[in-house]
Each structure stands twice: as structure tokens, then as C-alpha cells.
């Protein structure tokens, strides 16, 4: 919703404030102009847990008799990232496009880096195998994924990757620094490879 449209909505809210109550939903409150925010009681909701998303997705596929496999539902949960609306949209798009919800179809529809490939890349980093990690990153980059998509998936996979907690914290720290630089506009392949080098170095020097 553009700033101009929000200004028009603000005027409508002023005119009909005595007879109408407005309920607005958004992902980022910072995108809402200040005049509207000042007229609203802001309620912030945390992300749903993976278990909560999965339980609702299971109810939907059973009610709608959608052909599926458990790996496909897990992929839906992963791509939803705590957003139930996103999960249902991805579920509907996958079923409409392929007729069955499995892992391969979900990632085709959502067009996100495959978490198994990213997980393999993280595994190479934990063993300080930089060349193997670099090859996996090059494969992702050559598939056309943006640096933002890649770093976001790397972060989410790392959070659930089985590794010592102290090492995971160091990995997340380095991934966070890289994410900030990418957000600032430096989303290059070199930036991502530099992150891999740092992760390998962290793994090589890690001490509990």
C-alpha cells in the first residue's frame, strides 16, 4: 500500500471514526505512515512455532483431501517461517501446480534454496572444508538465487543444524554480520564466499 493510498485511508478513518472501526494487518509496522499508527492500538504477534504451523497444515490437507507426504508438509512449514498465511498460500500453490505436496514440488513453487543443499554446505563449514562449501555456494548462486534468499536460508538452517551450541552461536554471529552487509546493498558472491571462509575459520579454531 503506497504512502499516497495510506494518506487517503487516513482521511477516510477521520471522517468515519464515529461509526466505523478499522482493523489493519501488516508484516512491517514501519511501513505504515505515522498518522495512521497514531490512530491505532498496535498489537504485535510473535511468529507461530513450527509445531503450530504443522498442526494447522495437517488439518487443512486432511479436510481438503490433498495428496501429500510428510516431507512435503515439513517443507511447507520451513518456507512459511512462522507465517500461517504464507504456509497456506504455499500449500495451495503447490497443490494447484502439481497435484501432490512433496518436498521437491514445494521448493519448485516457493523458489527458495533447498535446505538440504544448504545443510550440506554448513556441514562442510563445520569440517573447515572450504572448497566443498564454496562449490555448494557457487551451485546455489548459479541457480539464480539472490544473496538475500541464500543468507536467509543459511541462517534458518544453521539454527536447527546439529552442532555444538558454542559453535552454532559463533556461526550465527558471522552469518548475522554478512546479512547486515547484504541488506546494506553488498549482495555479491564474494561476500557470501567470505562468510564461508569465516565460518570455516571459526570451526577450525572453535573451543568449547
UniProtKB/TrEMBL annotation:
An individual GO BP term: DNA-templated DNA replication
InterPro entries hit by this protein: DNA_pol3_clamp-load_cplx_C, DNA_Rep/Repair_Clamp_Loader, P-loop_NTPase, Rep_factorC_C, RFC_lid
CDD domains: HLD_clamp_RFC
Keywords assigned by UniProt, alphabetized: ATP-binding, DNA replication, Nucleotide-binding
Domain Replication factor C C-terminal, residue spans: 113-198
Recorded GO CC terms: DNA replication factor C complex; nucleus
Pfam families the record matches: Rep_fac_C
Molecular function GO terms recorded: ATP binding; DNA binding; DNA clamp loader activity
PANTHER family associated with the record: REPLICATION FACTOR C / DNA POLYMERASE III GAMMA-TAU SUBUNIT (PTHR11669), REPLICATION FACTOR C SUBUNIT 2 (PTHR11669:SF5)
Homology family: Belongs to the activator 1 small subunits family.
Record's protein name: Subunit of heteropentameric Replication factor C (RF-C)
Originating species: Cymbomonas tetramitiformis
Amino acid at each position: 500500500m503506497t504512502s499516497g493510498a495510506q494518506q487517503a485511508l487516513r482521511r477516510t478513518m477521520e471522517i468515519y471514526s464515529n461509526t466505523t472501526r478499522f482493523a489493519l494487518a501488516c508484516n512491517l509496522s514501519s511501513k505504515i505512515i505515522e498518522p495512521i499508527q497514531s490512530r491505532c492500538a498496535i498489537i504485535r504477534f510473535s511468529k507461530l512455532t513450527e509445531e503450530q504451523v504443522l498442526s494447522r497444515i495437517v488439518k487443512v490437507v486432511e479436510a481438503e483431501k490433498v495428496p501429500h507426504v510428510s516431507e512435503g508438509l515439513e517443507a511447507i512449514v520451513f518456507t512459511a517461517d512462522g507465517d500461517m498465511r504464507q504456509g497456506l498460500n504455499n500449500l495451495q500453490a503447490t497443490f494447484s501446480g502439481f497435484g501432490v505436496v512433496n518436498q521437491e514440488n514445494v521448493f519448485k513453487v516457493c523458489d527458495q534454496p533447498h535446505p538440504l543443499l544448504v545443510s550440506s554446505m554448513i556441514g562442510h563449514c563445520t569440517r573447515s572444508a572450504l572448497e566443498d562449501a564454496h562449490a555448494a555456494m557457487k551451485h546455489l548462486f548459479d541457480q539464480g538465487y539472490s544473496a538475500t534468499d541464500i543468507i536467509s536460508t543459511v541462517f534458518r538452517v544453521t539454527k536447527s543444524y546439529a552442532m555444538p551450541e558454542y559453535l552454532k552461536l559463533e556461526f550465527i554471529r558471522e552469518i548475522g554480520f554478512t546479512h547486515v552487509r547484504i541488506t546494506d546493498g553488498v549482495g555479491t558472491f564474494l561476500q557470501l564466499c567470505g562468510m564461508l571462509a569465516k565460518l570455516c575459520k571459526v570451526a577450525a579454531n572453535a573451543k568449547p
